Amino acid sequence: MTPIRDSGNICKEDGTVTVKGWVQDTRNLGGISFITLRDRHGVLQITMPKKKIDPALFESLTKLPRESVVAVTGEVKASDQAALGVELIPTSFELYSEAAAPLPMGVVDKVNVEMDTRLNNRFMDLRRPEARAVFEIRSLVAELISEAMRMNGFVGVSTPKIVASGAEGGATLFGVDYFGKQAYLAQSPQLYKQMMMSTGLDRVFEIGPSFRAEHSNTNRHVTEFSSFDGEMAWIEGEEDVMAMVEEAVDYVLVQLRERGKRHLDILGKDIAVPKRPYPVLTYTECLEVVVGLGLPLKDGDDLGTEGERLIGDIMAEKGNDLYFIVEYPEEAKPFYIMEKEGTGLSFSFDLDYKGQEISSGGQREHRYPKLIERMEKKGLDPEDFASYLDAFRYGMPPHGGWGMGVDRLVSKILDLPNVREAILFPRDTSRLAP
Length: 434
Ligand code: AMO
Known about the structure:
Distance between the termini: 36 Å
Bound molecules: aspartyl-adenosine-5'-monophosphate
Structural class: alpha+beta
Strand content: 25-35%
Oligomer: single chain
Strand order of the largest sheet: 7-11-12-19-18-17-14-13
Radius of gyration: 27 Å
């Protein structure tokens, strides 16, 4: 396949070139002036010695407002002073779009702009190479996830995002009026990916949007996130699922280190690939540790942001960025997770990365009568899940799976302080635009 040109630049046979991009900066020193022209790949210096170029051209180019979009044609010359080692001496130009002034935020100014201002002006923020690099990396992460899954026999699927019942609890459901019927935005693909396990497409994965009416305004919660979900049948226990999650995350990190180098360099990041197997802690031991450190938690409570962070600090000291936490109390886990009978525990796990949960999963309850029992125990009405339950009545293999927040994964890989940095247009309690 011949790649299609990925920039506006054109080299002509007469030796002139046309470069297209944004006017990042202009400097007029009187006898000579310069433009820094930026495109996706970098910047080029356009040099205008007043005596050597047409006065009208000099005038118009020098007056261009920052961030205007232009095409400049001219000759490329070697230059010791220019960062690229070459500069362009212009002979003509075309103004595609003049930028208004003042700009809502600077692109190259070294002042720290608040995240809110950046998100309000995301189109402008993304003109900064560092902001763009995050999304180059995110795109690669998604590609690597798909590669890892395909290599392990998983089929990519797309499940509905407008659904009739929620799988992850009523508190975080967004309601939708669906032609007069009550519908919801999907909190996860949980019910559908499990239904697939009864079909023969017994290893599926999806990267898609998930919606949660999260009222908490934290640096790791948004109301629309991207979820990497997997589900696999014929497992012997939740360890099989954990091994697959570990395989996928390791593949992403190892490959990203090489294939994402150009973008990682822009961010000044190298990726530490944690040693395998990832350590496994139990919920109970984590709880004891954080309670010992003063957190007022009781058995069954979520470890929470602070608890996860404390465990993260302890694990970081031992050189472990990624670790599993297993054996959560069954009451703390959703109805679809299998109970460890007679123990009060469940066949579940979380995967934490640098002190933050990035994934949770486990073995599912595939036995129809037990599943009904679990639903009732959780106060759910099996009638509301009739089409899901049908898939369990006519032959359902043992299975398990996981959900992983892609936004959280990317933000942890890159040590971003807020998950919103890894989302183009984040949605939260106070943000619905842009
Ligand atoms: P859970 O609810 O733990 O599990 O979600 C799985 C992962 O999704 C991410 N996540 C979020 N990311 C950003 N903002 C949010 N509000 C948010 N909520 C969740 C986290 C989390 O670890 N169906 C199960 C998974 C399974 O068992 O297969 C589920 O959704 O990274």
